[in-house]
Specification:
Elements lengths: L4 E6 L3 H16 L3 E2 L8 E6 L4 H14 L8 E6 H5 L2 H4 L5 E3 L4 H9 L1 H10 L15
Parallel strand pairs: 1-2, 1-3, 3-4, 4-5
Length: 138
């Protein structure tokens, strides 16, 4: 399999930034390459925040700005607080998949395949442990 490239946009509080760093590190461990421009990405990941109205507006605006990059099979995947608190796919149907941070295994399986995730978790079982319940309120 050729190396898949991903673009990662982190939004929100410091806890969200930490969760995003863990996700990016896990993707890199699975052999993916992070790029700084969504143009050449195989998938785009937006780590969202939704605790206050301003964060929800910003999140939706950022996602809508990324929609033109969905071409030639590029997937737009939303993770983080928004999919836990709201059904963002109802609000923006062009999103390919949405996962709360309590669904990290499902997210990784979606982008990498279950077998690759199983192999990684057998070597590093703590690498995908993220607890969205500890996110600070804003």
């Amino acid at each position: 399999m050729s190396c898949k490239k991903y673009y990662f946009l982190n939004l929100g509080c410091p806890k969200n930034q930490t969760d995003g760093d863990l996700l990016r590190g896990t993707l890199n461990s699975l052999g993916f390459t992070e790029i700084n421009n969504p143009v050449e990405a195989n998938f785009i990941v937006v780590n969202t925040c939704a605790f206050i109205e301003q964060a929800r507006r910003e999140t939706k605006g950022e996602i809508k700005e990324l929609l033109p990059y969905k071409k030639n099979g590029t997937k737009l995947v939303v993770v983080g607080c928004y999919p836990v608190l709201y059904d963002i796919r109802d609000e923006i149907p062009a999103i390919d998949a949405a996962f709360g941070l309590n669904q990290v295994d499902d997210f990784l399986s979606y982008v990498a395949g279950k077998e690759r995730v199983r192999n990684l978790m057998s070597r590093f079982p703590m690498v995908v442990t993220i607890d969205v319940a500890t996110a600070p309120s804003q």
